[in-house]
Amino acid sequence: MLLEVVRKAVGKLPVGVALDLHGNLTERMVAAATIASAYRTNPHEDALERGAEVAELTIAAARGEVRPTQATVKFRRSSTSSPGRPRANPSPSTPHWTA
């Protein structure tokens, strides 16, 4: 996984990433990243803003100005993907973010 390659290359330096919530956030991704932010629009018209947010927080973490914490939450699988309802997770045991 790319985040693990980056983590290995930079050691203890902070690693930031902007993510699309249509995918799963795995425990391996959480372990490799220091900062994570999700796109808030679809289509992803806020990619520049999320990238800037991640960069600012990653730099602040490197300077010791912030101390990020991480967590994952497992959601129950849903059989519907209608607007306003939970979307089905293809792997109910995989931690993920939902919109």
Task: Provide a short characterization of the protein structure.
The protein contains three helices and two strands; from the N terminus they run αβαβα. It is an alpha+beta fold.
Topology readout:
Layout: H1 2-10, E1 16-19, H2 27-32, E2 35-38, H3 47-62
Parallel strand pairs: 1-2
In words, what does this structure look like?
The protein has helices at 2-10, 27-32, 47-62, and strands at residues 16-19, 35-38. It has 99 residues and is α+β, with helices and mostly antiparallel strands. It has a two-stranded parallel ribbon.
Low-confidence stretches: 85-99
- The N- and C-terminal alpha carbons lie at a distance of 23 Å
Order of helices and strands: HEHEH
Percent strand: 5-15%
The 3D shape can be described as globular
Count up the helices: 3
The Cα radius of gyration reads 15 Å
What helical percentage do the residues reach? 25-40%
Largest sheet strand order: 1-2
Largest sheet: 2 strands, parallel
Q: Find the count of extended strands (DSSP E, 2+ residues).
A: 2
Structural class: alpha+beta
Q: Quick check: average pLDDT?
A: 80
List its traits.
single chain, 99 residues, alpha+beta, two-stranded parallel ribbon, 3 helices, globular, disordered C terminus
